[in-house]
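note to self: dont lose this again. the chain is below, predicted strucutre after it. 308 aa total, dont forget to put it in the shared folder this time
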Amino acid sequence: MARSAPTPIGRLAIVLLALVTLTGCALLPDRGAAIRTDVLPALEAVASAGPWASSGPAPGPTLDAPPVPSVVPGPMASPDLARDLRPRPREGRFRMDLYTANDHVAQFDPSWCVGASMQMMINLMEDGRPDRSRATQRELYQLAREISPWVETRPGASTYGWAGGLTQLGYGPYAELSAGSRGAALRLAARQMRFTGKPVGLLVWRGRHAWVMSGFQATADPAYTDDFRVTAVWIEDPWSGRVSSIWGPGLEPHTRVPTDELQGFTRWASRHRPEYGPRGEFVIIAPLLEETADGLAPIAREERAPAA
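---
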């Protein structure tokens, strides 16, 4: 028997369950949190039109791990998407770095990691003098909170507010995506960065903090072949200049980290996100492609999640 499509209210319930993720500098919603009624119409529209609407409860595709390369390495099968890329897709090792001087901004408040990450991502996407002001960071943090589907007296912002805020400001579309291994998540991040020219956010410290991935190095160009591995990433850590009692000092601005040393990028699991399973998944805030149905850059068929 064919399964009927969820009603608008059913889709809304799915989105509310799937998107209430707090990044650190904060905590997950508990019994003291309540759903905001003023954002329900917007969330229902997201449930109807979002990239995850036809792929089950996860807000975006979930990848299997380990990643499976294409059977025959070679030029991508979507020349229309790769045609305007600079540099042009080519054979050999690949490096991409979006950072320019002063794009990094440390968080002004211990709870503003999402606001600071949004500020840095906008700096990476905008030409001209970077905005490093406290006022802008506060506004971005408040925007992320305002469009999150929860009411919380404690500080913090959600991954939905992070992705939704960037999209609302015209820098998207952005969405939360996940993978079952660190390597698969970084491959997905690299593909999306390569095809969009935009930075990627990383949910780190078991969901308690935010980083920005401003560049990467790989064994091959993600726009040329699926047969590649990310070997290092450049990280913009808003915790720079601060010290965590658990995770230690924040990374210096524009730190290059080999992927086998990227210990802060951890699995995230929560009772609020059962689709990630008891072990959790590696979560990123990624730019989407408007030219493709699900927003993903070309990717090996075997690496996509099975249909719901």
